[in-house]
Amino acid sequence: MIVIYGIDEQLNPIKAKLSDVIHNVMQSVLGMPEDKRAHRFIPMDKSDFYAPGGRSDAYTVIEINLMAGREIETQKRLIKTLFVDIEQQLGIKPVDIEVIIKEQAPYQWGFRGMTGDEVTDLTYKVNV
């Protein structure tokens, strides 16, 4: 599950394209299948979205929730590829992108009536 926060006037017009960019990176770096796109956009009023100094109104926060298991270098490649691809395809500079990866143990995920540690039919690898 990926949650994307930004100022509504900036985020709303680019949601579809940003979703495509993020999903393409998830596929290329983590091997996620095409049908595993789970993005939630949280457009916020500018008065409710405080940003660190030096950021523009394009400042966007991307929280990536994953089952634990990806190698450190894989996670770093994911973050760096997001910076590059978002800048190239949407023109948002890396200073205006914040990426947070939150890992949880497989038993802390629940989907399709079971927990993540019980699943045996995933079509992608968690340990990459």
TrEMBL record:
Organism from which the protein derives: Motilimonas cestriensis
* Family matches, as InterPro entries: Tauto_MSAD, Tautomerase/MIF_sf
The entry's protein name is Tautomerase family protein
PANTHER family xref list: TAUTOMERASE YOLI-RELATED
Q: Which SUPFAM superfamilies match?
A: Tautomerase/MIF (SSF55331)
